[in-house]
Each structure stands twice: as structure tokens, then as C-alpha cells.
Amino acid sequence: MKVGIAGLGVVGAGVVRLLDEHADVLAARIGRPVKVVAVSARDKRKKRDMPKGGWRWYAKAEELAADPEVEVVVELIGGADGTARNLVEAALKAGKGVVTANKAMLAMHGAKLAALAEKNNAPLAFEAAVAGGIPIVKALREGLIGNRIDSITGILNGTCNYILTEMRTTGRDFGEVLAEAQALGYAEADPSFDVDGIDAAHKLAVLTSLAFNTAVDFRAVHVEGIRHVSALDISFAREFGYRIKLLAIARRTAKGIEQRVHPCMVPADTPIAHVDGVFNAVAAAGDYVGPVLFEGRGAGSNPTASAVVADLADLAAGRHAPAFGVPAVKLHPLKAAAMADHVGRFYIRLIVRDQPGVLADVSAVLRDHKISIESLVQRGRAEGDKQPVAVVLISHEAREADMARALKRIAMLRSVLQPPALIRIEQL
Amino acid sequence: MKVGIAGLGVVGAGVVRLLDEHADVLAARIGRPVKVVAVSARDKRKKRDMPKGGWRWYAKAEELAADPEVEVVVELIGGADGTARNLVEAALKAGKGVVTANKAMLAMHGAKLAALAEKNNAPLAFEAAVAGGIPIVKALREGLIGNRIDSITGILNGTCNYILTEMRTTGRDFGEVLAEAQALGYAEADPSFDVDGIDAAHKLAVLTSLAFNTAVDFRAVHVEGIRHVSALDISFAREFGYRIKLLAIARRTAKGIEQRVHPCMVPADTPIAHVDGVFNAVAAAGDYVGPVLFEGRGAGSNPTASAVVADLADLAAGRHAPAFGVPAVKLHPLKAAAMADHVGRFYIRLIVRDQPGVLADVSAVLRDHKISIESLVQRGRAEGDKQPVAVVLISHEAREADMARALKRIAMLRSVLQPPALIRIEQL
């Protein structure tokens, strides 16, 4: 099978390296060789960690789609629109298979691209778009095909998981750990895409479509990042037997499908609480299989190359499945459950002036919003009155909208000195 | 696609139930309906937890292979030989696809059956044979196809994992917990197959073939069960920061491929140490993907049905892969590393008479066999001399053969009151 690769960054170079290093065993496993015949990258002279090949170079990625020898295009450019999308659409229209790692594009245009692929009888594969080397796309689409999936819970962004793990193990604050992660190359110079939860939300939107056979709907994802997670909250989490993780959750509820990305407290003894550092994990619950968990490296040159090559092998061996589990025409629009209707338990941390009546005021607001308290802890009481102290409340199950309204009222109390911190508790 | 099912125990009934309950969504996902048209089971009148169908009944399972309407035979009878093997061979010879959950048969005749399948251009699939609902066969064969796999480490027997978990959490001894597991239906009346490690070894032999593209070689598996694991050793494990798990390990070494099933001490902070109760898990290390871990229910009607139906879906959708990752003629014979050459760390627990000179004698034997001690702990010293006390030694890396010879000598020392207990330490 003859392949054209667009984008020769660390992932593209990894794919070239893998196909070269394992050429013989891959040919034996697949039944025929997979060979790169053309590439496109901005800088032809740049030094890359990969073997040299006799491939054709194209300055414009879109030209790969027109190369008559190229049977499959690997798109590793990135970005929801622009060159990446133009290339993918051109390749599909030419009846060529497409393998992509582009979660932003899939999150924005996934259903349309799947329809275009089917119309042209061209496969569209994207194992590398979610959770790096973990073969979660194949697992959901084929391995768990017999199940009605009821929920997906993932740690889908290695940068956030690394930062939260470092904060927990060193006690340092977000800003300090982020700066270190940037110096180490674990976080981008502009970290917003990762730490504000957008990257995880793109991946969640793709997983949701696969799991529930709904059209990808990125705009329905509720997204919060980890910037507001403080060392203080991490230390309280430990005290209460929790760990803080940025989770991406999709769940079937009576009101529709919830899709949300936000920091969560998870019980310290659940498997997902132990997924640390740059690792990713996806837990799924199926009606027949029960709970399953997949864990591995979520990014990096080699793990992502492993996923790209798995897709290439499927295409070369003629193993096809609809991109999102069912043919595009059968993807039903996602009926989104409103975040305001979400019901769950909450961790609320306040900084209050230590004086009589504060807890009575806070409790009254919560009562007025029908929120009942499971436990309440006050910490940091110093000698002398009226010092700032931390108060932590753990709620019983409450509606998101009620909690939001209550917190707005609480923030306005004169004795409450900082905006309240809220972290949702997931029992899993 | 028209299916015949042989064996209507809990798994067979689960498959019938799943295909019925999810008929519509499966047809959408696969592209065509999957329908049971014939079954075979010993007792036609037995009450089963499944819907009734208009299928043909066969008293003899082998007759399913001759039913002209049956395109795929699902073999859920079990046993390495006899009816199960006869049926599978007859079906393959008739060019029909076979889906089986029969690990004993695959462990004994896997390579031959794969060759027979290819000769007759009939697919052979067995996702349900290993680790229940976890799609590990597909993950190794397709999802990680780009990797050279260097090791596989699995918790592959739910009965043993349940017993060891109960022993750890309750402090009770093996016999007591086994009796309870039998009462609860988690262990068979004759538990040998599970607790002596044979079932896990069957599954490991299959995974080894998939991971290393070698012919299945069950006889090369070193097998020990969990009968000799004592509450005392579990309590020492905790003290040293370990948990005891029955692991199934296949590993590429300089001397060949190791395959071994035995109780292991694993560091309490590794993910596999937290796989508890009836859950299974498989960790794999690939040269590109790095470490990956898959966890889920390893047995039971519904999870196993989920795996059987995944295979049926692949067959119905025309997704084929060689049974063990490469065509049968390319499976090379497994070059087995001798267990005597295994190198690792060891936990040794002795019961000795508490008198001067005992530790000197033990240490001298170990020194004579070139085994060096990382730590040594004596516990249980009571008032008065010559009482039995427990002594625990943790060794540095040592050769299995040296350790076996040393333990034989130590067992003969007059002050050593019981046969020494040995548990291998796996760092993972």
C-alpha cells in the first residue's frame, strides 16, 4: 500500500521511522508492504529523526491528494480548518483513504467528513486522534460493538495530568508547575489549548460519537480547565480521600447525553486515580461488558506513530468499519443534557473571616437552594479573632444550577473573602 | 449472517440474549443482521436465561458444521479435545467461520487450528478465550500491530485474584477463602484448574503467540498456583510495600521467551497491584507504544458474550486478520527460555528455631550459591529461647536455579522448621 504523509513533525517522523524499522514484520502481519511514496512538509531541509527515503516532496500538502500513486493520505498537520481540512476533503473526494490524528478537525467536522468518506467509498481512520497509543477507537468501535455504552470517563490530556500529578506530589501551585512543564517541553508556550480543557474536549466529542453513535457535537461539551485548581484544594482532596483529575465525561442521562470536561475529585482508591503523569486513560461502561479501563501514553512521537500505523494496517488489510461506528446517515443528532441539569456531589472551599455566624450564613444560603451538606470542615484557625480561615463543604447530590445560584449568593456574603472554589466529585 | 451455537451454558445464553436485545443496533453497526439459526446443547428442556427462538436443535454439536444454513459456528463447549475440537475442525473444513472461547483447545492445538482455518479460507476468532470482555486479542493483533511487543503481564484468572484479594483484605487463610468462593460460585467444586494456575497458563500461551508471533506452546509455560500463599506472607508483603498477585508473564529475554505463571509480589503503587477481586488485566510493553494496560471483567455470562459478539461482528463485516497475528506458516517455533535461567529478586520466608547461629547458617548457604541479600527481617520473637520465629529475606537479583539449590540446602538445616516459602518479586 502506498502512502503519502502530510506533516513531518515528531509524529510524522515517528511514522516514517516505524514503517521503516518494522517493514518486514508489518508486511507479514498485514499481508502486504506499506510504503511511504510521497511527503509534504514546510521545510525540506530541516533535520528530522527519521531515515531518508526516495519519496516525492510536495510543498503544498493538498497536492498529495492528486498524486496518482498515493492510495492513502496521512494527515498530521493539525488545525480544524485550512490546509488539513482541504487535504482530507480532497483525498476523500479522490477516493483515497485518510488516516488522521487531527482531533480538532474531527471535533468540528467529524460527521460531515464521515459522510464524505462514505459517499466516496474511502475509509477515514483516526486512532491517533484520541489518547495517543491506546487503541481506544478500535476498542469502542469493534471490541465493544456488542454493548450499549452508558458512560465514558477519560483522562485525555497528558499536560494537565502531568501538572496535577506534580502539584499533588510536590505541593506546589499551578503557575510554578506549568512553568516547569513548559521548560521540559510537556506544555506549549501558549498552554491555553491544553490547560483550559479544549484539547480534552475535542477528544471527548470524538469518543462520544463513537460510544453513542451520535453526530460529533463539540459545542455541546461543557469545558473547564485546571487553572483554578489550587495547592490548597489538592491538600484538602487528600484529607478527604480524593485525588483531583481533569476528567472528560460523557454519560447517558434521562435528559440526554452529558459531555463535560472539568477538574474532578475522584476517590483515591479507584483505578483512574492512579493514572499519573503524562499517561492517559479511558474508562467505559457497557451494558454487557461492565466497566473496562484502558491506560497508556497519550501523546509523543512513538505512541502516536503506533496508532497511525494501526490505522494504516487496517486499511492495507481491508479491515473497514464506519468511522463513528455506524454509517454517517445513521448517526443521530446528539440530544444534549444541559449542564444546569447535571446532578452530582460538590466540594466547595471558602476563605472566610473567622467570626461567629459565618457558617450559619453559609448554611442558610445552601438550605434556601435545597442543597444539603454531607460534611463541613474548618481549617487554619489561628490565635486571635477575624483571621481568614478555610472552610470546606462536601454536598450531597445537588443540581448544578442550584449550586451555581447558591455560590453566587455565598460569594456576596461580607465574611466570604475570596470567590468560592468548586470542584465536582465523581464517584465512578 | 447465520450462526450456530454449540453449548448453551451461561455464556451461550448470554450470546443469545445479547444478539436478541441489541439486534437493531448491531445490524446498523455491522451492516447486516446476525441471527442464530441453530443450536446444540445436551438438555433441550433445561431452563435458560434467554429468549426462545425458532432455531434448529441438534443433539450432537458436530452436526452444526453440516447445517448448510450455518455460516459461522460458535463453540462454547470447552475442553481441549473431544466434541469441541471435532466440531471446530469440521466447521473449518467446511469453510465456515469459527468463534470460540476455548482457551484449553487453543493452548493445545492453536497453531494447527490456525493452519487449518487458513487452508480452508475460514476465519478463526477467539476474543472470548482470554480475559473475558477485555478486547485484548484485537488490541494485540490489530491495535498494537506496529509494535515489537517485549512483554505481556496479566492477571488472567478471576478466581485466583478474588481469593488473593479476599485474603489480603480479611487476613484469612487460603482454605477458608476458597471454601467461601466455592459457596459463592466464584470457584468450581474442583478448583484445581483455576487455583493451580492451569487456566491462566492456557490463556498466557495464547497471548504469547499473539504478542510474539510464535506457535502456541503451552508445554513451555512454567506453572505454579496459589495454594501455598499464606496469610503470613500476605501480611509480610504489605509490610514491605508489595501485594501478592497471580501473574502470567511472557517476556523476550536474551535466552528466548519466558512464559511463567506464579504468585508474585508487585509494588503496591503499580497499576496492576490495584486490579482486585474478579477483575482481569493485561499489561503489554511495545517498543513504540510503551506500556499499556487493559482492565475489565475476565469472566461471566455477559462480559464473555460481549467478546463473542465482537468476533461475530468482525466476521459479519468481513474484517479478517490472521488468528495469531501472522499467517500460520509464518508462526515461528517458540524458543523457550528455561525457568532455571530466570533472573529476578526473591522473597524467602522461613520458620526457624530462635537460637544463636541460625541466621549465620542461612546466610552462609546463600553466599555459597552467590545470592546476595537486600534485606532481612526477623519477626515474632517471644519470651524464652528456642521458639519458632519467622525470618524474611529479600534477595538481590539471582538465578532461579541457584535459588532453588540454596533453598534445598536451607530446608535441610536443623533449625529450619518448615519448608521455605518462595515468592518471586516483579518490579514491573
TrEMBL record, chains A, B:
GO terms for molecular function: homoserine dehydrogenase activity. Its EC number is 1.1.1.3. Keywords: Amino-acid biosynthesis, Methionine biosynthesis, NADP, Oxidoreductase, Threonine biosynthesis. SUPFAM superfamilies: ACT-like, Glyceraldehyde-3-phosphate dehydrogenase-like, C-terminal domain, NAD(P)-binding Rossmann-fold domains. It comes from the Bacteria. Belongs to the homoserine dehydrogenase family. This is Homoserine dehydrogenase.
